[in-house]
Amino acid sequence: MLLLVALMSVFTIKADDEATELNCEVEVNSDKISNASKDVFNELKQSITDYMNTTKWTNAIFGTNEKINCKLLLTLSSWDNSTGAMQGDLQIQSQRPVFNSSYTTAIINFRDPKVNFNFETGQTLVFSEMEMEDNLTAILNFWAYMILAMDFDTFELNGGDPYYERAAQVVRLAQSSGETGWKAFEDNNNRSAVLSAFTDKATAPIRQMLYDYHRMGLDQMVVTVDKGRSTITHTLENLAKIYEVAPMSVCLAMFKDAKLDELINIYSKANMTEKESVYEMLYQVYPSETNRLSKIKETSN
Fold first, then answer.
1. Is the pLDDT of residue 191 over 60?
2. Per the confidence metrics, is the pTM higher than 0.90?
3. Distance between CA 197 and CA 207 in Å, rounded?
């Protein structure tokens, strides 16, 4: 009986490990900090990697090959050796595979500019849903839930609802801490603004876009290129709807940074009428991107 219990424990641990949702690569760039031992930064990298990849973020069952590929690039600008206080910015990237192909598409490519936290050698990162342990884990929790929410939205309409709710809980807890990057209306692209962009009624079309663009557009292009591309063309109309009511919404910048280069590639084989239509739609929202957008109208070889 004891042997059976031991074996069941081993298999449970293995199953739980395989069921974690994220396959997160972490980089910590400390080049801006001179005359400092790299040990603490190496430990920080490993701690964040372990935290993101071993925490069970959802109740969903994920196979090893179903994990969400993502990347966190933390660039540190300052470090106080006496207190462990660190400042910098965090680049968040995530992607998902396109149905029945080897192609992967970017879902998030965003720079969080206000990342401040304390970390010291030997510190353990502790996950809690009910309280804010520290600012570092709060930041990691928020972006883990946003990665999950947006990924789920690409497979099922409004499929990310439970994870936007968890991200909202993180924001509520963090707002009372006084830390920067969490306050409502503090600026247009902090973490509170990111959450609002995907949960407020005014900018709700962005979530419809996530589903239509990926599930009904990209995933269908493997079967019928023209039909899938046509769906993407129609879903881009949502950008104008968002721009009309919230021209400064961070979701517009997030879509551009994740998708503009991909769109140029998608329409490389389109007819000129479709190219012109897409160019006009995107130019209304992103007039400063004229040089990049003009590539959409170029004639393919």
1. yes
2. yes
3. 10
